[in-house]
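Per your request, structure below.
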């Protein structure tokens, strides 16, 4: 069965539109997101435009703050501090990657965790690890939501995560191994979590043997065709996070054609995890607004 991220994301956007509509009919203001874009990386511009469009669709106010690639780290830091103290902004993101002369961790660490709707500050990550209320980074939040909406339980399951990045691999592993009663606010289905998680990466030996024992495989490596049918046991659930452009076509990290017939559930690329990531940013923005205006 295909895990249709596009369809689920549309359902969640409709729910969000209703929630924002309720706020407005109570005389409250709309939630507001700011997106900081540095330079003119075409992929980043596309991502930012998609995020702005999604915000508009649900009634979240969104502004793009564009800066030249030559901006100094200090000026960008000043902008982050300004946004931290701007009462009209509920959340903001700094679109990555940043130009090489700017240290990403310096910028991310300066963001107020309550406005960190990308869930990337060390404080939010630490709180997620400890099961405290936090803003969870968008892709892991979206994957968890997708599993939940399809009723895919993770308790006692062996989940193999391929990739150990701070934005996908590490946080999704953390979320799925959590005890459910430590579930994060705004997330549906308390039954998700309690999995036995193995994290694999580029130095992992015998990836195939490990994957063959997995009930759920989450691939976030950025390597087209990495997960092949021989690495997947019959009836496994496959979540493909990868986004790669091959011969002008968008493909994931999974050999979809051969893996899909063996899988109980599988996400397509495009139309799987990608749309869930964007909608999770909207959910995080509403979460930040609710905390901010409480
Ligand atoms: P990354 O690019 O920072 O790192 C890749 C990770 O994969 C590393 O930890 C590396 O050790 C591991 N890896 C690479 N090749 C491997 C191999 N052959 N075997 C085992 N492990 C291997 O990771 P990222 O930023 O999480 O991005 C991963 C992919 O997911 C990229 O294609 C990216 O574009 C995509 N992505 C998609 C979304 C979405 O919304 N769909 C969001 C974020 C990232």
């Amino acid at each position: 069965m295909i895990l249709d991220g596009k369809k689920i994301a549309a359902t969640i956007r409709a729910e969000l539109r209703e929630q924002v509509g309720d706020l407005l009919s109570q005389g409250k203001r709309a939630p507001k997101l700011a997106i900081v874009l540095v330079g003119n990386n075409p992929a980043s511009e596309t991502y930012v435009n998609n995020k702005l469009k999604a915000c508009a669709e649900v009634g979240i106010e969104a502004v793009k703050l564009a800066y030249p690639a030559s901006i100094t780290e200090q000026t960008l830091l000043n902008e982050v501090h300004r946004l931290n103290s701007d009462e009209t902004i509920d959340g903001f993101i700094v679109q990555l990657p940043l130009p090489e002369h700017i240290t990403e961790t310096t910028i991310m660490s300066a963001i107020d965790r309550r406005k960190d709707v990308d869930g990337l500050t060390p404080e939010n990550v630490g709180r997620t690890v400890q099961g405290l209320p936090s803003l969870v980074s968008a892709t892991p939040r979206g994957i968890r939501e997708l599993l939940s909406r399809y009723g895919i339980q993770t308790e006692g399951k062996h989940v193999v995560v391929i990739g150990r990045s701070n934005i996908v691999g590490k946080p999704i592993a953390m979320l799925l191994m959590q005890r459910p009663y430590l579930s994060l606010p705004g997330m549906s289905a308390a039954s998700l979590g309690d999995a036995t998680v193995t994290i694999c990466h580029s130095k992992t030996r015998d990836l195939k043997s490990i994957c063959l024992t997995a009930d759920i495989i989450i691939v976030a490596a950025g390597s087209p065709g990495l997960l092949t049918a021989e690495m997947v046991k019959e009836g496994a659930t496959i979540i493909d996070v990868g986004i790669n452009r091959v011969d002008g076509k968008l493909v994931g990290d999974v050999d979809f054609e051969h893996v899909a017939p063996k899988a109980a559930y599988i996400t397509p690329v495009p139309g799987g995890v990608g749309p869930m990531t964007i909608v999770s940013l909207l959910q995080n923005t509403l979460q930040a607004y609710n905390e901010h205006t409480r």
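The radius of gyration is 19 Å.

Regards,
D.
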